[in-house]
Amino acid sequence: MSDTPGIVVMGASGRMGQMLVREVQAHPAMRLVGAVERSGHDWVGKDIGIAMNGPAAGVYVTDDPLEAMAGAQGVIDFTTPQATIELSVIAAQARAVHVIGTTGMTDEDLAKLDAAARHAVIVRAGNMSLGVNLLTQLTKQVAAALDEEFDIEIVESHHRHKVDAPSGTALMLGEAAAEGRGLDFREAYVAARDGITGARAPGSIGFSAIRGGDIIGEHDVIFAGAGERIVLRHVASDRALFARGALKAVLWGQSQTPGHYSMLDVLGL
Ligand SMILES: NC(=O)c1ccc[n+]([C@@H]2O[C@H](COP(=O)([O-])OP(=O)(O)OC[C@H]3O[C@@H](n4cnc5c(N)ncnc54)[C@H](O)[C@@H]3O)[C@@H](O)[C@H]2O)c1
Ligand SMILES: O=C(O)C1=N[C@H](C(=O)O)CCC1
């Protein structure tokens, strides 16, 4: 048996799934051992390489995550909240590192992940890129340095297929801003203004979402004061960015004790 960890890609036909399959296959320190899709998907039963219009990979897409996880040391999962919660139980039973990029999780979902993380390593982040994780730290610092005269607004833009809003990244940035300013994030959160909203509530953090075309992911954190404005911006121009962060996380997780970690832990930020 090889020393390199065997990795399963969940949601293998998706925008992120295909990117992850390519990156895992190209990585010298891991092996692709499984590819999972939802039941009824027409890739189930096919060789993942052929399904992606490339050479055969010798890995057949399955709709059974339990079968795919046999002999795997890690699973990378960018799918849906429901699929991620179901997989977390299986990954914990297999003691495999579960790297989660899925966004749109509820508090109830997160509590279930906490339960799974008592038995296995989970690394979860709404954005796996180095740039965004660094931006969360900068956002916290700027929010702490400026007083309430500077209103905080977060504007995010994504492709037309995205199903959740605000984005996971926007929420990470908002939480960092709230922490920096000593605010309760839930109380500060304001989304989707429409109609006669009244004047802006002091101490609030506003979120706006744009959806269109093939935008991969853009985020502005705006600190708007009187006569001046600071804008912290991240622009993603390649999804490989997120996949590479996930690969880093699954390797990092191999040497950790069970727990629910973030990319800040992986990157040491
Ligand atoms: N954290 C990050 O850095 C980051 C980056 C990009 C996307 N995302 C998130 O990743 C998720 C997926 O994004 P996407 O653009 O790849 O979406 P997508 O719709 O292209 O892919 C999701 C895939 O999951 C599959 N799937 C659904 N249920 C499944 C199940 N039960 N078992 C196996 N597969 C299942 C779907 O069939 C689909 O192929 C979203 O939540 C998105 O916000 C996170
Ligand atoms: O394409 C998506 O969907 C993305 N989702 C993440 C988010 O919700 O922030 C990261 C950026 C791309």
Automatic annotation (TrEMBL):
Report the residue ranges that make up the Dihydrodipicolinate reductase N-terminal domain in this protein: 7-128
InterPro entries, per this entry? DapB_C (IPR022663), DapB_N (IPR000846), DapB_N_CS (IPR022664), DHDPR_bac (IPR023940), NAD(P)-bd_dom_sf (IPR036291)
**Which residues are involved in binding (S)-2,3,4,5-tetrahydrodipicolinate?**
H159, G168, T169
How this chain assembles, per its entry, is: Homotetramer.
Which residues are responsible for catalysis? H158, K162
Give the GO biological process terms: diaminopimelate biosynthetic process; lysine biosynthetic process via diaminopimelate
Per UniProt, NAD(+) binds at: G11, A12, S13, G14, R15, M16, E37, G101, T102, T103, A125, G126, N127, M128
Using the record's annotation, list all stretches that form the Dihydrodipicolinate reductase C-terminal domain.
Answer: 131-267
Q: Which compartment or compartments is the protein found in? A: Cytoplasm
Instruction: Tell me the domain of life.
Output: Bacteria
Q: Tell me the name of the encoding gene.
A: dapB
Q: Does the keyword NADP apply?
A: yes
**Protein purpose:** Catalyzes the conversion of 4-hydroxy-tetrahydrodipicolinate (HTPA) to tetrahydrodipicolinate.
Pathway as given in its UniProt record:
Amino-acid biosynthesis; L-lysine biosynthesis via DAP pathway; (S)-tetrahydrodipicolinate from L-aspartate: step 4/4
One family name in Pfam for this protein: DapB_N
UniProt-listed SUPFAM superfamilies: Glyceraldehyde-3-phosphate dehydrogenase-like, C-terminal domain, NAD(P)-binding Rossmann-fold domains
Q: Which UniProt keywords apply?
A: Amino-acid biosynthesis, Cytoplasm, Diaminopimelate biosynthesis, Lysine biosynthesis, NAD, NADP, Oxidoreductase
Known EC number(s)? 1.17.1.8
Source species of the chain = Tropicimonas sediminicola
Q: Where does NADP(+) bind?
A: R38
Which protein family is named in the record? Answer: Belongs to the DapB family.
The protein in question is named 4-hydroxy-tetrahydrodipicolinate reductase
